[in-house]
Amino acid sequence: MSDKLDKIDLSILKILQDNSKITNLDLSKRIGLSPAPTLERVKKLEQNEVIQSYHAKVSPEAIGLMVKTFVLVSLDWRKNQARENFLEQVQIIDEITECYIITGEADFLLKIVCKDIPTYERLLFKTLQQIDEIERLKTLMTLSTVKDVKRLPFDYDGEA
């Protein structure tokens, strides 16, 4: 789809990533089109799943989620359907907010957000370590966030 995106589509994407609450009228003024074709373009970007969803960015600290960890997971591939069973378990653990299949020293990278260290410890020992398919876990504890950008790194001006 990125081949078919023109400069106006790219401008729309850039603006919506910075502020998804912008009105269609304000968006149309910023990109230089009238409201009707602007709305058509946004709808087309949504239908083609270039725009996948809209979200409110909530401060974890404001709602009492003070601990963020990344966990490297290595599976025991001798277990039957290890990957499928592990991924099924990941889907039902709310504290796991992201899960990636990776290369390198582990098979998966999990991002976990929870209330505090005792909560993380319970999650680690009573939930994660109880998943039979997991052979090894390695926790990377975050101290602070120095960059958290949601805009994707793309040439929004459409110039090569």
Fill in the keyword field for this structure.
single chain, 160 residues, alpha+beta, Arc Repressor Mutant, subunit A, Alpha-Beta Plaits, 2 domains, four-stranded antiparallel β-sheet, 5 helices, 34% helix, elongated
Question: How would you characterize this protein structure?
Answer:
It is built from 5 helices and 4 strands. By secondary structure, the chain is α+β, with helices and mostly antiparallel strands. The protein folds into 2 domains: 7-48, Winged helix-like DNA-binding domain superfamily/Winged helix DNA-binding domain (Arc Repressor Mutant, subunit A, Orthogonal Bundle); 60-141, Lrp/AsnC effector binding domain/regulation of amino acid metabolism (RAM) domain (Alpha-Beta Plaits, 2-Layer Sandwich), CATH 3.30.70. Strand 2 (96-101) and strand 3 (108-114) form a beta hairpin. The longest helix is centred in the first third of the chain and has 13 residues, at 35-47. The relative contact order is 0.16. The mean pLDDT is 94.
